[in-house]
C-alpha cells in the first residue's frame, strides 16, 4: 500500500532519531556519523527552501502542460483534459518515488496534490450539472483522493484534508440553497466518530508509518468539531429562526453552552497536550486559545481592539515569561525549555523502526564492530 | 520503553554501554521541549502589545497629548535599555551569548522604539526641521551602536533597514509624499549598489575578529536587495534592460558559487529563483511579446513547460553536487 520502500522509511526514521539524540547530547557526533554511514538514507528530501522551489517549478511545468492540452483540445473538453492530467501526474508521482527516491521533496508533494485536484475537477466537470451535484462529487472525490494521499504517499496535508473535505461532503448532502443548522451538529457528530476512529488506529500502533498522518488527521478533526459546534450554538443563540426568537432572546442553556464550549474546549486540548506531553497538541491548544481573543472581541466587544491587543499581549508576555523562568528552574518532570534541542515526538519514531528490516552487520557479530569493539561513546575512537 | 532499537545498535557496535544507559535513562523520563512554543507565545505577545500600543496612541492622541506620549516612549526606551545593560554580559567583539530570552525581546522592543520615537518627534515637533534624512540617519546610527554593543542581530536588521530608508529619503525626498520606488531609476541603482556593498561588507567582516557572526544578516539583506534591485531595473528600464539582465545573472552566478563553498542549498535556490524570474520576464515580455493571440499563448506555455522542467533538473543536480561537495 505504501509507495515508499519500508526499509528506506526505517532508515529515514533512524536518522531522525539519531539527529534528535545528538541534539540532546545523548550521542556523540562521531557515533552519529558512524550509524549514518552504516545505515545510509537513500531517500531524497531537500530542506524547506529547495523543497518549495521544486514545488513551484513542478506547478509551473504542470500548468503549462495543462494549458497546452487545453488549447489543443479547443477548450471543449476541460473535464477530459483534467482527467488526463491527473493520470499523468499520478504516473509522474510514482516515477519520482520509485526511480528517483523522492520523499517529500516538493516534486512528489506537488504532483500528489495536483493529481487530486485534476482528477476531482475532471470527474466533477464530466459528471453532470448543478451546483449541488458538483459540490457533492468534488468534496467526496477530494476526501477519497486525500485518503489515498495519506495512506499511500504518507502525506500529512492530505491526511488533514480528509476531515475537512468530509465536512464539505456532509454539507453537500442537504438539498436546496443554504446549509441547515442541524448540518453543523451532524458534522460535529461525524467528526467525533472520525476522531474516535483515528485515535483507535493511533493507539493500536498497527500503522507505524502513518503516525504523522494520523496525528494531523486527528488535529483537523478536533478543529472541525470545535468550529462546527461553536457555529451551531452561535447561530442558535444569535439568528432569529434558528432557535432565538430575536436578538437577546436565545435560550439561556444554549448561551451557557456556547461560552462553556468556546472557552473550555481549547483549555481541554491544552490539558490533553500537557498530560500526553505532546508539543503538537499544545501548539493546537495555543492556536485555539489565541482564537478565543477574537471570539471575545467579535461577540462581546468590551474593549476596543487596541486595548484588547495590549491586554492580551501583556498577558501572553507574562505567561510565557513565567513559564520560561519556571521551566529553566527544572521544576517540571515532563517539560523543559532548552534552545537547540527538540525532543517532542522522539518516542514515536523509535518505536516504529524495525531493525530487522535494516541491513547491516549481524547482531552480536564481534568482528563487525568498529575498531574491534572499542568504538563507542566510552571514549575510544582513535583506532576507529 | 523502545529498547529494541538501541539494543540492536549496541549489539552492532554502534553505541557503547554507557551511551546505551544514558539513552535508556533519558527514555525512561522523557521530556518535551517547549522552546519553540514559548518563544512563539512571547513573540505574539510582543507583537500584540506594540501593535496595540501604536494604535491606542494614534486613536487617543487628543486625550493623551503629544508630550505625554513622548514621555512614555522615552521612559519605556530608557527602561528597556537600562535593564538590558544591567543584565547584559560584558561587551566583546566575538559572539556574546544572550543571558536569557527576556533580554532578547526587551532589546528588540527598545530597538523598535528608537525609530518610532525619532519619527514621532520629527512629525509632531519638527525636531530636525526639513532635514528628513537626519530623522532616519540618527536612529540608524543609534541602532547600529545598540546592535554592536549588545550583540543583537534583530536590531542589526532594523539598523540595515534604516540605512536603506535613509539612503532612499536622502536621494529622493519625494518618497515621503509618494512611495513609488519604480518611478525613480536612481533608487533602483542605489538599492542594487547598496545590496552589493552589504554583500561585500558581509564577506569582509567574516575575515575579521569584529563580530564575524553578523555576516549572515548583512548577507541576507545584501542578497535580496541586489537581486530585487536588478529585477526592478530589468522590468522598468526600456533600453538598458540587457545590462540589468547581465547584472542579475552575474549576481546569481556569484551566489551559486557561494552556495558550493558554504554547502548551502538556500543560496542556490534563491539565486536560481531570481535568475529564473528575470529570464522568464525577458522571454515573455520582450522576446515573445511580438507574437499575437494563440501563437503567443502557445509559445509562452511551451517556454514555461521547458524552462520549468529544465530549472527543476538544474536545481536537483546542483543540490546533489552541493551535498556531495
Please tell me about this protein's structure:
The complex is a heterodimer of chains A (384) and B (325). With 384 residues, chain A is mostly helical. Chain A has a domain at 157-302. Chain A has helices at residues 6-23, 29-38, 48-72, 78-98, 107-127, 131-153, 156-172, 181-204, 211-238, 252-276, 279-299, 305-328, 347-352; one strand at 335-336. In chain A, helix 3 packs antiparallel against helix 4 (78-98) and helix 6 (131-153) runs antiparallel to helix 7. Chain B has 325 residues and is mostly helical. Helix content of chain B is 78%, strand content 1%. Chain B contains 13 helices and 1 strand. Chain B has helices at residues 3-11, 17-28, 35-59, 61-64, 66-87, 101-125, 132-150, 153-171, 185-206, 215-236, 241-261, 265-287, 293-324, and one strand at 32-33. In chain B, helix 8 (153-171) packs antiparallel against helix 9. In chain B, 34% of the residues are buried. The mean pLDDT of chain B is 88. At the A-B interface, helix 1, helix 2, helix 3, helix 11 and helix 12 of A face helix 1, helix 2, strand 1, helix 3 and helix 6 of B. Strand 1 of chain A pairs parallel with strand 1 of chain B.
Instruction: Note the main sheet of chain A.
Output: none
- Radius of gyration of CA atoms of chain B, rounded to a whole number: 26 Å
Q: How many strands in all of chain B?
A: 1
Most extensive interface: pair and counts? A-B, 91 and 70 residues
What string, H for helix and E for strand, traces the elements of chain B in order? HHEHHHHHHHHHHH
Order of helices and strands of chain A: HHHHHHHHHHHHEH
C-alpha Rg of chain A (nearest Å): 26 Å
Q: Could you give a quick summary of the protein structure above?
A:
By secondary structure, chain A is mainly α. Chain A has 13 helices and one strand, in the order H-H-H-H-H-H-H-H-H-H-H-H-E-H. Chain A is flat.
Q: Which features does this protein show?
A:
heterodimer, A: 384 residues, mainly alpha, 68% helix, disordered C terminus, B: 325 residues, 13 helices, flat
